[in-house]
Predict the structure.
Amino acid sequence: MRNVANHLEIARPEFNLKLGVAETYDALLGRSYSSIVSANELLSTAQETGRLLVHGYAGSGKTQLLHRLYRHIVADGKFAVLIRLRDLVAEEKGWNDVPDNLRSQSQMLLARAEPPTDETSVRSIPSTLFALVDGLDEVPSELAVSVLGALDALAQRLPNLVVIVTDRFSVRPVSPETWRLASILPLGENDLPPLPQRNQDVNQRLLTIPLFVDLLAKGEVSLSQLRAPQVSIAAILNDLIERSIPADEVGRVSHAAYSTFADARSRVFAINWLTEAAGAAAVDRLMQKGLLKVEGERASFTQNLVHDYLAARYFASNPSLWNQRGFDVVSFTGASFDVLVLAAEVLATGSDEGLSERFIHQLYDWNFYAVGFVLARSIAVGSHVISRDTTLAAEAMMTERKWDRIVSTRTRVIAALRIIGDRNSSELLSLKDFSQLREWVAAREGSTSWFAAWRKLFLVPHGTSVDVDFVNAIEDPESILGWTAANVVKRTAPSIEALNRLREMLSVGTDTVRWRVAHALGAFPSRENFHPLVQMLGSDPYPWARYGALRSLVEQASLTDAGPLREEIIQGLADNVGVILSDQRLRIELERCLEVDPIPDGWARSLDPLISALWDRTSGELQFLWERLASKLSEKERAALV
Amino acid sequence: MEIGGRHGKTRIAVVTVLPEEFDAAQRAFAATQHILHTRAYTAAAPANVPEAEGSYSTVLVRAAGRGTGEAQETASRIIDQFRPDFLIVLGIAGGVQGRDHVALGDAVVPDYIYYGEYMKIVKQHVLRRDGPFDQPSRYLHDLLEPIRIATVWQQTITEARPPAEHIAGPDARADDQVAANKPPEQEIPVGIPKVLIAPLLTTEKILADEENAIQAQLLDFYDHAVAADMESAGFARGVFLNRRDPSYNPQLIVIRGVSDFVQSSNNKEQRELWKAYASDVAARLSRVLAEEILGDWPVESGQGEAQADLRS
């Protein structure tokens, strides 16, 4: 362990990191911390339940925190291992090759630790062993769920094991009874090394991020750069890179950085591969400048943000990649949105304002939570990469989902609005119902023509009769307008012709249009409307269309009284459990979306054929998951009746 | 040295679900001392017994909610925190009238637990499905048997038994008829709870509707179950899932006081009336059993805040 400790990189000078501790995500995102602790005090917090998730933004010092904790633990004569999750993905025999059971997975985690260990050794340790696990956000989101499950099981089996995991800001499915949560707080005045007198009028937000204060201390960036009024993380990193390698090499390195995400789905790559892609000279210069770290045949950038920036630079300059696959690639399938933030910053500093706006709107088509994250970071950093009009529209549309029938959607949008944390989001979070939201939107003026069109569409009241022309707006190539139309249609009363048109679009629309229409049809339960959704769930080539069909089938079932129609819809879902279980995204979403509010009469009993089919087709831990879900839904229904 | 959990080591963990069950257990075990960073309580250490931090004879915890999911979580958590050797699940259950002379206020201690949700009804045919979970401990049933036969544990019940007229009515008469055909195994005076060793059925849905067809099918299918609850199989699954270490062999027992009959038309009223008494029955029987356990498996000398209290 001392050997590992001696080889860990520790940034100098060390900052006085502070962390806010909370027991629930509500408290964490609302910044209502039960305590604020230093890095070393975090160890006692983790020991309370044996499991701690530490959330922090890019550059906040998550890895450094674990390195410092490791050294502190070892210096104190105690025991620790370090597990770097990104290595698990990069290895040839990686996580995906491990049998899908908690025992094998947890064995692998311990075997890949630094230093490697196993359960027998851990049991023999006379005191606590801290397992410091770095980078939950550096593995694809579906893997992150199973890694967390394995760590939880490991802690359950080994009472002397304490697990501390770092992650970006994201609401993870962990029990508040067993997991403590913490958030790395921005550096305060007293946490910084000595700096010249600061001017309160200029942007100092980057000085709250440890990475940039570290670069400042090393002389890699200047105080004037960090203080520039229109500063962005991308601009600082761009300057750092362009001072390290010639401009013509930056393009090749950026392409290579993107390709590691696309091809290896990892931040670790073969050095030979980078040398071939970017050239030996570029690789040498990156190493000399301390931006690239090589261990044997494998390499990685010393800072995740540097890798992210390079990938973002390539991604931003290739609009043809701004689609589902591209967004999945740079976000590790939704696990980390940092590349997207940086790409937005790159585009915002470019000359084509329209391109920047287009990027955000394309992003909205893929995942509106990602837009929320980009918005939150740009507000925190002060780079303001999203226009005021888009910000207003995106925040209002998220807020409407506060009253979504599917409970997990409500939870996620509330979390997103809290993370954004601007004045708008505070106001929006306090709104009690949709009529208050309408008033709020009606009082806002925009500066673009699309905003005027959006506002008019958004303000259409519930129950309005709409015709074919109206529902055709779902096809709008402008994603925010198209999605708004889909949302608004759900709260209107479409004519028979309009419903026919919606069903027609299910078969002739583009990928995105099919997804939007599937979303809209969730509000209109009928045999005519659920049959095409069942068909779409079973065979649509576009995964997000299947995802939309799944949610809408659940929504339709929950909108009907207990009886034949609900039974048929549930049976339609049950007939497709094979499809649902073969796609992790669908499986996780089904687990989430079955909890609806208000919970209809006989809901839990109605779901029996579906839960039964899921149970029949799975084994082991997944069977227990369905049992727990059935139990939870029964309990919710009972509580609602009381 | 015994391996403890994250917050210490307990010989026995007593788990409950409803507030009334917890209150009854807290009185029976004098478990009023909260254990920091947990949901658990234990008895305050007597002044003449030296305290050993994190070592307990008994801890008491209430599940955060109802249903098998919460029960499973609770069992896992208590094992994570205190690694109990014995788990006693105590609380109330609905009796299945007409089976084994079960009466309101009796204690049912299942020797087998069924989980009704595995059953699948297809075109009027009932198909059985099974999933793994622990079954009640043979060892603990052996310890319980002399207690059952001695019939003195009932003297420790402190809660007043609801008046006899509340048992009367069509339900009670039906029970009497069944009882007349098959004499009870053990002669217990009327009004004194007896201990029934018989299977119990766990379902996620409250069985409380005499006319519900699914309930009728369930009760027909599990024709030996004398009582039904909503959590026991969940606790048992939690124990099963934590059997991942050959050196850890937790023993589970479920003790339920009968608060109502699942087929009764006035099931809810019955439960409200009998809940406190049935909880006390389960808690007092559990306490007597706990003393027997600690007689066999004392907490190591100098440790254990409540052992002196429990054995006194």
Remarks:
- The first helix of chain A runs from residue 2 to 7.
- Chain A has four domains: 2-185, 190-231, 239-381, 532-642.
- The mean pLDDT of chain A is 88.
- The radius of gyration of chain A is 25 Å.
